Amino acid sequence: MEKIKTFKVFKHPTLGYQAVKVGFSWPGLFFSGIWLLLKQLWGYAFVFLSITLLLSFIEAGFEKEESIAGMVLVLWLEIGIYIFVGAKGNEWRAANLQKRGFELIDTVQAETPNAAIGKISKI
Fold first, then answer.
1. What is the pLDDT of residues 72-120, one digit of tens each?
2. Are 36 and 44 in contact (CB under 8 A)?
3. Domain coordinates of the chain in residue numbers?
4. Alpha helices in 1-112 (DSSP H)
5. Which residues have CB under 8 Å from 31's CB, separation 6+?
6. What is the mean pLDDT of residues 31-56?
7. How far is it between the farthest Cα atoms of the chain?
8. Is the pTM here over 0.70, yes or no?
9. Model confidence over 21-43: pLDDT tens digits?
């Protein structure tokens, strides 16, 4: 049995319904760059990928100098960025849907996004 979660349900005149979970995004944490792109969060994806690339260059410099402290610092920064995307990703997605013409219909409790949409579309 799945856990009940809170979803914001949005509706677009031609694109239909979208449900966004309120709270932490586990896919946003584990698949940050790809998740941002799939959710059409282009600006956030660009910033995320740019920071990740920059940190890779910095890490390579620390590896060349054999600086363990530097490499650990970069690792912690990378982990922090992934956690930040997980924590803010659903908020960004909800705001992006509204910018794209989706209207917030309601906030509902459901087990899955499809179940949340099902509750709204029956009304």
1. 999 999 999 999 999 999 999 999 999 999 999 999 999 999 999 998 8
2. yes
3. 5-121
4. 26-30, 32-38, 42-64, 68-99
5. none
6. 97
7. 63
8. yes
9. 999 999 999 999 999 999 999 99
Query: What are the structure tokens assigned to 80, written together?
Result: 């922090």
Please give the structure tokens belonging to residue 65: 């100098």
Phi, psi of 14 (to 5 degrees): -115, -25
Which whole number is the average pLDDT over 39-59?
A: 97
Strand partners, 17: 11
| Rounded (5°) CA angle 8-13-16 | 55
Long-range (24+ apart) CB contacts under 8 A made by 99-102 are: 100/12, 100/40, 101/12, 101/13, 101/15, 102/10, 102/11, 102/12, 102/15, 102/18
Residue found by looking up tokens 């087990």 in the block: 111
If residue 13 lies in a helix (H) or strand (E), which one and from where to where? none
Cα–Cα distance measured from residue 5 to residue 41, given in angstroms and rounded to the nearest whole number? 23
